[in-house]
Amino acid sequence: MHVETLDPNHQKRGDFKEAFNFGEFKNDKAQQPLPSSLVPHEAEISRFMNLCRKTCDRILTLLALGLGIPSDWFTTRHDSSKGPSGVTFRFLYYPSIQSPSTSTFQQNIDVRAGAHSDYGSITLLFQRDGQPGLEIQTPTGGWAPVPIRPQQESTTTSFPPILVNIGDLLSYWTNGLLKSTVHRVVFPVEQQSGSSHGDDRYSMAYFCHPLDDTELVPVPSKLVEQHRDAIAGYGPNADKIMTARDHLASRLAATYGGNPNEYK
């Protein structure tokens, strides 16, 4: 709890959440020690991560086609067989206000996850029914709750749909044509007012990242060329072209503290 601070410029203390990160598996094996409770599920986790990767590849292919560039432009830069990347699969637990874990909660200070954009290309978010809290920033700077299921979707299906976030790197690659989604996780108003006990929130996130040495230069798309509101400091006018790893290291340093070089 409070280890990660996703909005260091505005948060007075770290996020009210717990998380466990999985790095990329090799030959279906985790490259890190696993808690004893997860060891029997290593093969299942590996299969799920492989399905997430394939889903990301499909989405990236469709985005490439929509931008009018070769269909494999993004996927070749996410090919894990060619080198390391920042791909991360994360289990997340956000306690409710009634949980003993939140006994020190202060309404005007604390948040489950501070406002941020994701560091990679795209994110796949898996949520559970009845556990709200996710909000996205609107164009006017306000916040809007994100429903677990679209209003028109039937709740008879087993699981809610996957929520897909655009990350920083797609924004860099497209000079801001595809905007990185700024979002946060809050304690629902009903919990804060005491009108509802609420549930703990559990979710899983698959953060798709390109290869570490991938350069963050605009894609060869006419649509991107026509969209000239490039993000300051990046893109074709940048003094120094950043790599995917450079960007990830700078974001991790801002979140956890330290020098970006420590995260490379």
Q: Alpha-carbon distance between the termini?
A: 25 Å
* Average pLDDT over all residues: 86
Low-confidence stretches: 229-237
Main sheet characteristics: 5 strands, antiparallel
Determine the oligomeric state from the structure.
single chain
CATH superfamily, please?
B-lactam Antibiotic, Isopenicillin N Synthase, Chain
Beta-strand level of the residues, as a percent range? Answer: 15-25%
Helix share, percent: 10-25%
CATH fold naming = Jelly Rolls
Shape: globular
- In CATH, the architecture is Sandwich
Count the beta strands. Answer: 9
What does the radius of gyration come to?
Answer: 19 Å
Task: Tell me the series of helices and strands, N- to C-terminal.
Answer: EHEEEEEEHEHEHH
The largest beta-sheet arranges its strands as 1-2-9-4-7
Number of domains: 1
Class inferred from helices and paired strands = alpha+beta
Number of helices in the DSSP assignment: 5
Domain Fe2OG dioxygenase: 83-210
Organism: Coccidioides immitis (strain RS) (Valley fever fungus)
Pfam families: 2OG-FeII_Oxy
Protein name: Oxidoreductase, variant 2
